[in-house]
Fold this sequence. Notes:
Blueprint: H1 4-7, H2 15-22, E1 28-37, E2 40-50, E3 55-59, H3 66-73, E4 81-86, E5 89-91, H4 96-101, E6 104-107, H5 119-124, H6 135-151, H7 166-179, E7 184-188, H8 196-211, E8 215-220, H9 223-229, E9 232-237, E10 240-246, H10 252-260, E11 278-288, E12 294-304, E13 308-312, H11 319-327, E14 332-339, E15 342-343, H12 349-354, E16 357-360, H13 364-368, H14 375-379, E17 390-391, E18 394-395, H15 397-410, H16 427-440, E19 445-449, H17 457-472, E20 476-481, H18 484-490, E21 493-498, E22 501-506, H19 513-520
Helix pairs in contact: 6-7, 16-17
Bound molecules: adenosine-5'-diphosphate (ADP) and magnesium ion.
Magnesium ion is lined by residues 66-67, 188.
Amino acid sequence: xxxxxxxxxxxxxxxxxxxxxxxxxxxxxxxxxxxxxxxxxxxxxxxxxxxxxxxxxxxxxxxxxxxxxxxxxxxxxxxxxxxxxxxxxxxxxxxxxxxxxxxxxxxxxxxxxxxxxxxxxxxxxxxxxxxxxxxxxxxxxxxxxxxxxxxxxxxxxxxxxxxxxxxxxxxxxxxxxxxxxxxxxxxxxxxxxxxxxxxxxxxxxxxxxxxxxxxxxxxxxxxxxxxxxxxxxxxxxxxxxxxxxxxxxxxxxxxxxxxxxxxxxxxxxxxxxxxxxxxxxxxxxxxxxxxxxxxxxxxxxxxxxxxxxxxxxxxxxxxxxxxxxxxxxxxxxxxxxxxxxxxxxxxxxxxxxxxxxxxxxxxxxxxxxxxxxxxxxxxxxxxxxxxxxxxxxxxxxxxxxxxxxxxxxxxxxxxxxxxxxxxxxxxxxxxxxxxxxxxxxxxxxxxxxxxxxxxxxxxxxxxxxxxxxxxxxxxxxxxxxxxxxxxxxxxxxxxxxxxxxxxxxxxxxxxxxxxxxxxxxxxxxx
Length: 526
Ligand SMILES: Nc1ncnc2c1ncn2[C@@H]1O[C@H](COP(=O)(O)OP(=O)(O)O)[C@@H](O)[C@H]1O
Ligand SMILES: [Mg+2]
């Protein structure tokens, strides 16, 4: 745990840098907000304020209470205790409609647009004036275009929402809030779905919105983003406000320490690729997606013993289908997949596993565990039929429990007991459980999809270390991740997937984030 004295200087905002913000009444003042869910204290007496003209970040691990605090503000939850004042006036916000009337806009993690309507229709939806004749829609369209132009929000206003890219949909949500004259704009993890270049565009728009006098709340658990965009940063941990820092007073280290409550050194040592034997060789792999589309279009790749190959890309470019086809849980369309020279493409999952593949899936709750089974049962899912756990057809209970206990300790899985249902564990601990199970079989090839998505920083660092350890022990490791920082820090080689193909490769030691980001957006250097 942190020495309380060590952080005390961080507890308060540096008065020198923010004097200009403190002269005026804050746009928003939330005081001592407490919100309980059954068994969870999601917000515990949290103070939070936003001044006109600033971007104020809410920073913290998954589950820290960021979304809850802003859902209270947006009238989606009633707080159990606490007060909200807008422009210095105490107010009750009983619904999103009430929040909108008070000038609050919220861009959710998952967009709330109707796919089959146009951009303008979506923005008009719920406006009183839109119930009138058609001319109203035309008026809405005109104003939407004006707003889009003046704020640098590129959107095709007449397109149907399903035709838009994710970045465009997000811009529609922002336009929708601006159309309703949002003066306080909350963005809940807006960068999670964007390419690095889209993130840059978004940040430019947000800076401009703040410069025009609005107050912005930017929710993120990514320290680099928070440092890049924000004027002030409030850190939440386990429902409590740990502190509020000005941008000038904050550093990467101080923020991460405040977030996790102790010092972690997240840097991964990068060893050069060992250049071993070819463990996994894909050739011309073609796979269809759920809607019958060609999701993977002829992918060739090789992973050697002792190297980590990272596949970068924005979600939905065939990465999921690629992983599932290798693991044997999705039928391939064509091509070949060799593990140690043996064809496994199209074989059932247990045969692929027997050939040496360990698989940590993206959909952990669906494909990685049986949520209702206990921790011990989940640890034994794939191994229980083999010696030393089974003898003459009987499971050997004591051997199994000892083995499970060892795995839980070795992988630091936080669980009340081996008999706890896996569904009760946090995301980070479920991921550690899956890793423990998969690595205990000493795989030849390790395939990990989204190793740390939705996981707190402490568990993520731990998982990164174990992946590097596997690499150093000679395993061929293939990582698929939408988190560019993760791919850059872990991989010995990077492949970028775009629209089902590997459209480029990068060397993480010499390539820049921007160069990889361009490939992720489908831009191939000429
Ligand atoms: N509707 C809900 N019902 C029960 N528990 C919830 C609900 N929403 C959030 N929680 C719990 O409250 C805590 C804070 O969650 P959340 O605000 O979503 O965190 P963050 O946005 O920082 O990741 C978590 O433990 C979460 O599981
Ligand atoms: Mg959240």
